[in-house]
Specification:
The protein is α/β, with parallel strands linked by helices. The protein has two domains: about 5-125, Rossmann fold, CATH 3.40.50.720; about 125-300 and about 320-345, Dihydrodipicolinate Reductase, domain 2 (2-Layer Sandwich), CATH 3.30.360. Helices cover about 35% and strands about 25% of the residues. The chain is built from eleven helices and 15 strands. The chain has helices at about 15-25, 40-50, 60-65, 80-90, 105-115, 130-140, 160-165, 180-185, 190-205, 305-315, 325-340; strands at about 5-10, 30-35, 55, 70-75, 95, 120, 150-155, 210-220, 225-235, 240-245, 255-265, 265-270, 275-280, 285-290, 345. The protein is globular.
Length: about 350
Protein backbone atom coordinates (compact mmCIF):
# COMPACT_ATOMS: atom_id res chain seq x y z
CA UNK A 1 0.00 0.00 0.00
CA UNK A 2 1.42 3.36 -1.05
CA UNK A 3 1.37 6.26 1.39
CA UNK A 4 1.37 8.87 -1.35
CA UNK A 5 0.43 8.75 -5.03
CA UNK A 6 0.51 11.11 -7.99
CA UNK A 7 -2.77 11.88 -9.74
CA UNK A 8 -3.39 13.46 -13.13
CA UNK A 9 -6.38 15.52 -14.23
CA UNK A 10 -7.43 15.59 -17.88
CA UNK A 11 -9.78 18.49 -18.53
CA UNK A 12 -8.93 21.09 -15.87
CA UNK A 13 -12.03 23.18 -16.46
CA UNK A 14 -15.01 24.38 -14.45
CA UNK A 15 -15.85 21.40 -12.26
CA UNK A 16 -12.31 20.08 -11.96
CA UNK A 17 -11.05 23.46 -10.75
CA UNK A 18 -14.01 23.96 -8.44
CA UNK A 19 -14.09 20.49 -6.87
CA UNK A 20 -11.63 17.80 -7.95
CA UNK A 21 -8.34 19.72 -7.91
CA UNK A 22 -8.91 21.32 -4.48
CA UNK A 23 -9.91 17.90 -3.09
CA UNK A 24 -6.75 16.30 -4.49
CA UNK A 25 -4.52 19.05 -3.12
CA UNK A 26 -6.15 18.74 0.31
CA UNK A 27 -5.74 14.96 0.41
CA UNK A 28 -2.71 14.04 2.55
CA UNK A 29 -2.03 10.97 0.43
CA UNK A 30 -1.60 12.87 -2.84
CA UNK A 31 1.88 14.09 -3.73
CA UNK A 32 1.90 15.52 -7.26
CA UNK A 33 -1.24 16.78 -9.00
CA UNK A 34 -0.60 17.04 -12.75
CA UNK A 35 -3.15 18.91 -14.86
CA UNK A 36 -4.07 19.11 -18.51
CA UNK A 37 -6.24 21.38 -20.63
CA UNK A 38 -5.68 22.15 -24.30
CA UNK A 39 -5.58 25.96 -24.19
CA UNK A 40 -2.44 27.57 -22.80
CA UNK A 41 -4.24 30.60 -21.35
CA UNK A 42 -6.69 28.48 -19.37
CA UNK A 43 -3.96 26.06 -18.30
CA UNK A 44 -1.83 28.93 -16.98
CA UNK A 45 -4.82 30.20 -14.96
CA UNK A 46 -5.29 26.81 -13.33
CA UNK A 47 -1.57 26.38 -12.64
CA UNK A 48 -1.36 29.85 -11.08
CA UNK A 49 -4.55 29.46 -9.03
CA UNK A 50 -3.38 26.22 -7.41
CA UNK A 51 0.42 26.68 -7.63
CA UNK A 52 0.81 23.61 -9.84
CA UNK A 53 4.08 23.08 -11.70
CA UNK A 54 3.08 19.92 -13.60
CA UNK A 55 0.83 21.37 -16.31
CA UNK A 56 0.34 20.16 -19.88
CA UNK A 57 -1.65 21.19 -22.93
CA UNK A 58 -1.38 17.64 -24.29
CA UNK A 59 -2.98 14.80 -22.31
CA UNK A 60 -0.87 12.08 -23.92
CA UNK A 61 2.31 13.96 -23.02
CA UNK A 62 1.22 14.19 -19.39
CA UNK A 63 0.54 10.45 -19.25
CA UNK A 64 3.91 9.72 -20.85
CA UNK A 65 6.00 11.97 -18.60
CA UNK A 66 4.34 11.71 -15.20
CA UNK A 67 4.52 8.72 -12.83
CA UNK A 68 0.80 8.53 -12.09
CA UNK A 69 -1.33 6.05 -10.16
CA UNK A 70 -4.65 7.36 -11.46
CA UNK A 71 -6.28 9.97 -13.64
CA UNK A 72 -9.38 12.11 -13.21
CA UNK A 73 -11.24 12.56 -16.49
CA UNK A 74 -13.13 15.88 -16.46
CA UNK A 75 -13.01 16.90 -20.11
CA UNK A 76 -16.15 17.66 -22.18
CA UNK A 77 -18.73 14.86 -22.30
CA UNK A 78 -17.90 13.71 -25.80
CA UNK A 79 -14.20 13.29 -24.91
CA UNK A 80 -14.62 11.20 -21.74
CA UNK A 81 -14.24 7.86 -23.49
CA UNK A 82 -11.21 8.92 -25.53
CA UNK A 83 -9.38 10.31 -22.52
CA UNK A 84 -10.34 7.44 -20.22
CA UNK A 85 -9.05 4.99 -22.81
CA UNK A 86 -5.67 6.75 -22.89
CA UNK A 87 -5.30 6.34 -19.12
CA UNK A 88 -6.64 2.79 -18.97
CA UNK A 89 -4.22 1.68 -21.69
CA UNK A 90 -1.44 2.86 -19.37
CA UNK A 91 -2.81 0.61 -16.62
CA UNK A 92 -4.07 3.53 -14.52
CA UNK A 93 -7.18 3.73 -12.38
CA UNK A 94 -9.63 6.35 -13.65
CA UNK A 95 -12.28 8.54 -12.11
CA UNK A 96 -14.52 9.49 -15.03
CA UNK A 97 -16.83 12.47 -14.69
CA UNK A 98 -20.38 11.70 -15.68
CA UNK A 99 -21.43 10.65 -18.18
CA UNK A 100 -18.99 7.78 -18.44
CA UNK A 101 -19.33 7.96 -22.22
CA UNK A 102 -21.87 9.22 -24.74
CA UNK A 103 -22.04 6.01 -26.78
CA UNK A 104 -23.02 2.62 -25.46
CA UNK A 105 -20.20 0.81 -27.21
CA UNK A 106 -17.60 3.17 -25.73
CA UNK A 107 -18.84 2.54 -22.19
CA UNK A 108 -18.78 -1.22 -22.74
CA UNK A 109 -15.26 -1.07 -24.16
CA UNK A 110 -14.01 0.99 -21.21
CA UNK A 111 -15.34 -1.56 -18.72
CA UNK A 112 -13.77 -4.40 -20.70
CA UNK A 113 -10.44 -2.57 -20.94
CA UNK A 114 -10.37 -1.82 -17.19
CA UNK A 115 -10.98 -5.51 -16.51
CA UNK A 116 -8.22 -6.52 -18.89
CA UNK A 117 -5.75 -4.12 -17.27
CA UNK A 118 -6.78 -5.01 -13.72
CA UNK A 119 -7.68 -1.44 -12.75
CA UNK A 120 -10.84 0.26 -11.54
CA UNK A 121 -13.24 2.80 -12.98
CA UNK A 122 -14.96 5.00 -10.41
CA UNK A 123 -17.73 7.49 -11.15
CA UNK A 124 -18.20 10.63 -9.02
CA UNK A 125 -21.94 10.13 -8.56
CA UNK A 126 -21.94 12.12 -5.31
CA UNK A 127 -25.03 10.56 -3.75
CA UNK A 128 -23.59 7.06 -4.17
CA UNK A 129 -21.08 7.91 -1.43
CA UNK A 130 -23.72 8.90 1.14
CA UNK A 131 -25.04 6.68 3.95
CA UNK A 132 -28.60 7.26 2.71
CA UNK A 133 -27.81 5.39 -0.50
CA UNK A 134 -25.77 2.73 1.29
CA UNK A 135 -28.89 2.01 3.36
CA UNK A 136 -31.12 1.66 0.29
CA UNK A 137 -28.58 -0.64 -1.36
CA UNK A 138 -28.35 -2.79 1.77
CA UNK A 139 -32.12 -3.15 2.21
CA UNK A 140 -32.59 -4.34 -1.36
CA UNK A 141 -29.61 -6.71 -1.04
CA UNK A 142 -31.12 -8.13 2.16
CA UNK A 143 -34.30 -9.02 0.28
CA UNK A 144 -36.75 -6.50 1.69
CA UNK A 145 -38.44 -6.02 -1.71
CA UNK A 146 -37.79 -9.49 -3.15
CA UNK A 147 -37.34 -9.66 -6.91
CA UNK A 148 -37.64 -6.19 -8.45
CA UNK A 149 -40.62 -5.95 -10.83
CA UNK A 150 -41.13 -2.21 -11.32
CA UNK A 151 -39.28 1.06 -10.66
CA UNK A 152 -40.42 4.68 -10.68
CA UNK A 153 -37.41 7.01 -10.82
CA UNK A 154 -37.27 10.75 -11.28
CA UNK A 155 -34.60 13.41 -11.02
CA UNK A 156 -34.98 17.18 -11.28
CA UNK A 157 -32.54 20.09 -11.00
CA UNK A 158 -32.57 23.89 -10.92
CA UNK A 159 -30.58 24.25 -14.12
CA UNK A 160 -32.89 25.89 -16.66
CA UNK A 161 -30.17 28.45 -17.38
CA UNK A 162 -27.37 25.92 -17.97
CA UNK A 163 -29.37 23.69 -20.34
CA UNK A 164 -31.03 26.70 -21.92
CA UNK A 165 -27.66 27.92 -23.20
CA UNK A 166 -27.30 30.71 -20.62
CA UNK A 167 -24.56 31.20 -18.01
CA UNK A 168 -25.28 29.24 -14.85
CA UNK A 169 -25.98 31.99 -12.34
CA UNK A 170 -24.28 30.23 -9.41
CA UNK A 171 -20.94 30.17 -11.28
CA UNK A 172 -20.40 33.90 -11.82
CA UNK A 173 -17.48 34.03 -9.37
CA UNK A 174 -15.85 30.70 -10.34
CA UNK A 175 -12.46 30.38 -12.00
CA UNK A 176 -14.25 29.04 -15.09
CA UNK A 177 -17.93 28.79 -16.02
CA UNK A 178 -19.56 25.67 -17.52
CA UNK A 179 -19.32 26.09 -21.30
CA UNK A 180 -22.40 26.03 -23.51
CA UNK A 181 -20.50 23.73 -25.87
CA UNK A 182 -20.51 20.98 -23.23
CA UNK A 183 -23.91 21.43 -21.58
CA UNK A 184 -26.26 22.94 -24.16
CA UNK A 185 -25.06 21.91 -27.62
CA UNK A 186 -27.22 19.14 -29.15
CA UNK A 187 -24.34 18.17 -31.44
CA UNK A 188 -21.99 17.59 -28.49
CA UNK A 189 -24.18 15.52 -26.15
CA UNK A 190 -25.54 18.45 -24.24
CA UNK A 191 -28.86 18.15 -22.39
CA UNK A 192 -30.36 17.06 -19.13
CA UNK A 193 -29.96 13.33 -19.68
CA UNK A 194 -26.20 13.33 -20.22
CA UNK A 195 -25.64 16.21 -17.83
CA UNK A 196 -27.85 15.31 -14.84
CA UNK A 197 -30.19 12.34 -15.20
CA UNK A 198 -27.08 10.17 -15.28
CA UNK A 199 -26.77 10.96 -11.53
CA UNK A 200 -30.21 9.51 -10.86
CA UNK A 201 -29.41 6.44 -12.92
CA UNK A 202 -26.11 6.05 -11.09
CA UNK A 203 -28.02 6.00 -7.79
CA UNK A 204 -30.58 3.55 -9.16
CA UNK A 205 -27.99 1.07 -10.41
CA UNK A 206 -26.22 1.16 -7.05
CA UNK A 207 -29.49 0.28 -5.31
CA UNK A 208 -30.61 -2.45 -7.73
CA UNK A 209 -28.71 -4.89 -9.93
CA UNK A 210 -30.74 -4.66 -13.13
CA UNK A 211 -29.60 -4.96 -16.75
CA UNK A 212 -31.43 -2.57 -19.12
CA UNK A 213 -32.55 -4.02 -22.45
CA UNK A 214 -34.89 -1.49 -24.08
CA UNK A 215 -36.03 2.14 -23.87
CA UNK A 216 -38.93 4.12 -25.30
CA UNK A 217 -38.63 7.88 -24.76
CA UNK A 218 -39.89 11.37 -25.46
CA UNK A 219 -38.03 14.59 -24.67
CA UNK A 220 -39.01 18.24 -24.29
CA UNK A 221 -36.42 20.69 -25.60
CA UNK A 222 -34.86 23.81 -24.12
CA UNK A 223 -34.35 27.09 -26.03
CA UNK A 224 -30.88 25.77 -26.91
CA UNK A 225 -32.36 22.64 -28.52
CA UNK A 226 -31.25 20.10 -25.91
CA UNK A 227 -33.50 18.12 -23.60
CA UNK A 228 -35.00 20.02 -20.67
CA UNK A 229 -37.39 17.13 -19.95
CA UNK A 230 -37.03 13.38 -20.34
CA UNK A 231 -39.80 10.77 -20.11
CA UNK A 232 -38.95 7.13 -20.73
CA UNK A 233 -40.12 3.57 -20.26
CA UNK A 234 -37.24 1.19 -19.59
CA UNK A 235 -37.29 -2.60 -19.82
CA UNK A 236 -34.87 -4.86 -17.94
CA UNK A 237 -33.54 -8.34 -18.65
CA UNK A 238 -35.52 -9.93 -15.78
CA UNK A 239 -38.80 -8.56 -17.19
CA UNK A 240 -39.02 -5.60 -14.80
CA UNK A 241 -40.08 -2.17 -16.06
CA UNK A 242 -39.26 1.42 -15.12
CA UNK A 243 -40.93 4.80 -15.55
CA UNK A 244 -38.03 7.28 -15.79
CA UNK A 245 -38.34 11.07 -15.64
CA UNK A 246 -35.95 14.02 -15.74
CA UNK A 247 -36.55 17.78 -15.54
CA UNK A 248 -34.13 20.74 -15.61
CA UNK A 249 -36.49 23.52 -14.53
CA UNK A 250 -36.79 23.35 -10.75
CA UNK A 251 -36.92 26.93 -9.39
CA UNK A 252 -33.54 28.16 -8.15
CA UNK A 253 -34.93 28.42 -4.63
CA UNK A 254 -35.15 24.62 -4.37
CA UNK A 255 -32.56 21.88 -4.42
CA UNK A 256 -32.05 18.62 -6.28
CA UNK A 257 -34.68 15.93 -6.43
CA UNK A 258 -34.03 12.21 -6.76
CA UNK A 259 -37.02 10.05 -5.93
CA UNK A 260 -36.80 6.30 -6.55
CA UNK A 261 -39.58 3.83 -5.73
CA UNK A 262 -38.88 0.14 -6.16
CA UNK A 263 -41.67 -2.44 -6.20
CA UNK A 264 -40.89 -6.13 -5.83
CA UNK A 265 -42.41 -9.50 -5.10
CA UNK A 266 -42.00 -9.05 -1.31
CA UNK A 267 -42.60 -5.32 -0.84
CA UNK A 268 -41.43 -1.87 -1.82
CA UNK A 269 -38.60 0.58 -1.10
CA UNK A 270 -38.93 4.37 -1.05
CA UNK A 271 -35.80 6.50 -1.56
CA UNK A 272 -35.89 10.30 -1.63
CA UNK A 273 -32.99 12.75 -1.23
CA UNK A 274 -35.21 15.85 -1.05
CA UNK A 275 -37.05 14.62 2.04
CA UNK A 276 -34.16 12.44 3.28
CA UNK A 277 -36.21 9.24 3.30
CA UNK A 278 -35.44 5.54 3.04
CA UNK A 279 -38.30 3.20 3.88
CA UNK A 280 -38.94 -0.46 3.18
CA UNK A 281 -42.45 -1.87 3.53
CA UNK A 282 -43.16 -5.58 3.05
CA UNK A 283 -46.33 -7.53 2.31
CA UNK A 284 -45.78 -9.57 5.49
CA UNK A 285 -46.16 -6.43 7.61
CA UNK A 286 -42.48 -5.76 8.34
CA UNK A 287 -41.39 -2.15 7.94
CA UNK A 288 -38.03 -0.43 8.13
CA UNK A 289 -37.90 3.38 8.40
CA UNK A 290 -34.32 4.65 8.49
CA UNK A 291 -33.68 7.51 10.90
CA UNK A 292 -31.80 10.14 8.89
CA UNK A 293 -30.61 13.69 9.55
CA UNK A 294 -32.25 16.45 7.53
CA UNK A 295 -29.13 16.90 5.40
CA UNK A 296 -28.76 13.19 4.58
CA UNK A 297 -29.67 13.84 0.94
CA UNK A 298 -27.16 16.65 0.34
CA UNK A 299 -24.71 16.17 -2.51
CA UNK A 300 -21.22 14.89 -1.67
CA UNK A 301 -18.31 16.37 -3.66
CA UNK A 302 -15.14 15.30 -1.85
CA UNK A 303 -15.80 11.63 -1.01
CA UNK A 304 -15.43 10.39 -4.63
CA UNK A 305 -11.92 11.84 -4.78
CA UNK A 306 -11.06 10.43 -1.34
CA UNK A 307 -12.27 6.98 -2.41
CA UNK A 308 -10.40 7.27 -5.71
CA UNK A 309 -7.14 8.12 -3.98
CA UNK A 310 -7.59 5.11 -1.69
CA UNK A 311 -8.11 2.88 -4.72
CA UNK A 312 -4.98 4.29 -6.33
CA UNK A 313 -3.01 3.64 -3.10
CA UNK A 314 -4.20 0.02 -3.00
CA UNK A 315 -6.38 0.48 0.08
CA UNK A 316 -9.18 -2.14 0.16
CA UNK A 317 -12.38 -0.13 -0.21
CA UNK A 318 -15.91 -0.36 -1.59
CA UNK A 319 -16.45 1.28 -4.98
CA UNK A 320 -20.11 2.42 -4.88
CA UNK A 321 -20.07 3.83 -8.40
CA UNK A 322 -18.00 1.40 -10.43
CA UNK A 323 -17.67 0.92 -14.15
CA UNK A 324 -20.72 -1.32 -14.43
CA UNK A 325 -22.92 1.31 -12.77
CA UNK A 326 -21.57 4.04 -15.04
CA UNK A 327 -21.94 1.81 -18.09
CA UNK A 328 -25.56 0.94 -17.33
CA UNK A 329 -26.40 4.63 -16.97
CA UNK A 330 -24.84 5.26 -20.38
CA UNK A 331 -26.67 2.31 -21.94
CA UNK A 332 -30.03 3.70 -20.81
CA UNK A 333 -29.27 7.25 -21.96
CA UNK A 334 -27.87 6.13 -25.33
CA UNK A 335 -31.07 4.18 -26.02
CA UNK A 336 -33.23 7.02 -24.62
CA UNK A 337 -31.83 9.57 -27.04
CA UNK A 338 -32.05 7.15 -29.96
CA UNK A 339 -35.69 6.46 -29.11
CA UNK A 340 -36.51 10.16 -28.83
CA UNK A 341 -35.16 10.61 -32.35
CA UNK A 342 -36.69 7.49 -33.91
CA UNK A 343 -40.08 7.54 -32.17
CA UNK A 344 -39.90 3.82 -31.39
CA UNK A 345 -38.66 1.43 -28.73
CA UNK A 346 -34.89 1.08 -29.02
CA UNK A 347 -32.90 -1.91 -27.86
CA UNK A 348 -29.99 -1.32 -25.53
CA UNK A 349 -26.83 -2.06 -27.45
CA UNK A 350 -25.11 -5.17 -26.09
Amino acid sequence: MADKVNIGVIGAGWWASLSHIPALIANPHVDIVAVNRPDREGLDRVAAEFALSHAYTDAAEMLAKEDLAGVVIASPHILHAEHARLALEKGLHVLIEKPMATRAEDAQQLVALAGKKGVQIIMPYGWNYKPILDTAHRLVAEGWVGEVRHVVAQMASALADLFGGEPMVETKDHLFRPPVSTWADPEKSGGYGWGQLTHGLGALFRIVDLEPTGVFARTGLSPAGVDYYDAAVVEFANGATMALSGAATVPKSRGYQIDIRIFGTEGMLLFDIERARVEAIRHDGQTHVEQLPADAGDYEQVAPITRFVDICRGVPTVNPADGTIGMRATLVLDAMYRSARSGRMEEVLQ
